[in-house]
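Fill in residues.
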């Protein structure tokens, strides 16, 4: 089994900055500072995990945990996924809200309608909740509306194709 080296020795061979032969003293100092920072971060990661930098198994475990922490997802649990039915209902609810706002003489922009929908059930339950796009606010619901309109367009095309074929 190959012997693991400590983080500072490991980083000595790493390229952390410009690789040209004409490096200035300032860039060399910056590379040295970055190497110290990375070495300290590695040391802190091992300490937090209760691991030793001299053990290869510990390197694998810390690398796995760091990979999960960085790339493992934004939130605990599965991101919220909206069904086609919910997306189509969102488009219909926005259309109803737009009609009601126009009747009252209020602006009927998508963002205004989304803010209005978030005041009432079932959308009020989503307010402040994180889904895979964003924290659900009026602008977050509006981004969902874009997705919903695409789904509605595809659904309408399928409906027309079925009516022509039938």
């Amino acid at each position: 089994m190959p012997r693991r080296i400590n983080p500072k020795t490991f980083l000595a061979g790493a390229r952390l900055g410009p690789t040209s032969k004409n490096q200035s003293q300032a860039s060399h100092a910056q590379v040295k500072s970055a190497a110290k920072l990375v070495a300290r971060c590695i040391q802190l990661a091992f300490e937090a995990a209760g691991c030793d930098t001299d053990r290869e198994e510990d390197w694998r475990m810390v690398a796995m945990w760091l990979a999960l922490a960085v790339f493992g997802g934004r939130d605990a649990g599965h991101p919220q996924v909206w069904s086609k039915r919910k997306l189509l209902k969102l488009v219909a609810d926005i259309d109803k809200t737009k009609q009601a706002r126009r009747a009252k003489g209020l602006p009927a922009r998508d963002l205004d309608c989304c803010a209005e929908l978030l005041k009432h059930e079932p959308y009020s339950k989503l307010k402040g909740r994180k889904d895979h796009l964003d924290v659900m606010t009026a602008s977050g619901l509006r981004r969902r509306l874009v997705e919903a309109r695409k789904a509605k367009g595809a659904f309408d095309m399928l409906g027309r194709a079925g009516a022509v074929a039938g």
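The mean pLDDT is 74.
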